[in-house]
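Chain A, query sequence.
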Amino acid sequence: MLLVLALASSAAWLVPAPAPRCAAARCCDTIPDSVSEKIPPEKLSDAWRRDERAKELSETLKGCSLYLVGFGARKTAVARLLSRRLQNYRLYDVGSIMCSTYSAMGGGGEAVSLSQLLAKEPLADVEQLSQAVLREVQQFARSIFVAWDGAVSTADYMVMQQGIVVHLEFDASEEDEVALPAAEAKATREAWAEGHAKADVTVKLAKGLAADDAAYKVVDALLAFIESNPAKSKEWKEKADAKLDEQES
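Chain A, predicted structure.
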């Protein structure tokens, strides 16, 4: 109950100012000849093809945000690589923001994990915290949001479907440990799995797939989805353009 009451005055803590992208990360635009000569031609060709596909997706999205759902922390690693490939897209890890917000509301500043948060507070209160954070961050266009594993309610999807919701389905043998409430953990996990299945796009990621390969697979899946749903993509683009115009005015 304390968490629910505190949410009303927590808006200032919900979203820390986005860190600027480090310019040093891209110190040059071309690969030195001494390096490129040692790279097999097929590897270079694949790298350029991935860049071109990512550029195509970035232009097609026109600022429309992406929401990644699924189990475990590996989706954050995929989202990080995806945000690097999509020009001018920022990454927001909703689970991490939930934890930092909860710590700030406690006043002590002690860091907590999602597992600790679920152990300390009722599931309903954690869900409300997730929804409050999601509402705050969704205002940012050109963003990739990594949703908390339990973001599966109608209220969550009302926010997330302002963009495109992507379900990352990892091989069961490689799933990270999932933070679940102590009470009815199995039933909760099953309910969350059903909620993830409501996503616009589901991308199945094979065992042992590297994060960059997984990000490229997401790029391909999104381009195919948008191409096969022109009416929906037009609606998303119109909303995205209107949001961008509003921010720039």
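The domain at 49-248 is CATH 3.40.50.300 (Rossmann fold). The chain has a mean pLDDT of 80.
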